[in-house]
Amino acid sequence: MLLVSLLGLWGSLYLKSKGRYEAYNGLVMEGIRLQKIAPPMLFLLEKLKLSQRVPFFLFKIQRTVQKLAGDRRGGDLARLFLAEMLSYSWLLMTLGSLMTLLMGGDGSGLLLGGILAVLLPAALINDLHRKVVRREREVLLELPEFLNQLILLVGAGSTVQQAIKHCLERRKEEQSHPLYRELLQMQREWESGDSFQHAMEGFSKRCGIQEVSVFTTAVLLNFRRGGNDFVLALRDLSHSLWEKRKAVSKTLGEQASSKLVFPMVLLFVVVIILVGAPAFMIMDL
Predict the structure, then answer these.
(1) Are 164 and 227 within one domain?
(2) pTM above 0.90, yes or no
């Protein structure tokens, strides 16, 4: 009965959403795999009015998605991500109902499907936050390197815009890096007519990291003065960013060493067994 209800619900939502969400077909986001069957769940989300019922949760998801995919159509990508979660839950509940039917009414299949239907969306949200943390860590590790190059070029007489453009030209092979991807977007904005200040503010907003905000503030406050004052301000900032990078690197090293503890213990147990087994065999003899 539940299986029929789930299939009927899907069919009804599909008919109501058919051709309604074609604009979502062109959206690209890492991790989205059920985009082709998302329209029914997008329609369900629209009818549930989540933006009014759980605005804080929706805003948090949207903010996280924007950090990964950029500001453009961030709201649509957030809704697509939520539709992906609901699609997985529906599929798992349907498979659980089918297993119950095939096992002659045993409720274990439905129970398993229900548990997975709750756990998998939670795992998707957790994975999304892990990706954001990894992105922020990559930006923090690379920002001091970029700032050092900027200081050298500005100290040699280049303007800030010229220095940033030169740094990006030298890092063409790293355009997929989150920091250089956002810097390239910033360069496109000021070259297309936006003011340098507006482009810098957009760069800071897209990154959403405190250290980047400090960097953009320092640049905007000092770049018009130029000369030694600007270079000294950037050097002070560079020192603090290198200290932050050392702290992040130390944390990564501690995490890596902690992950090696279990394999080392397992290897120690295997060695003990290999060494002790002959002794026990001799004692038995």
Answers:
(1) yes
(2) no
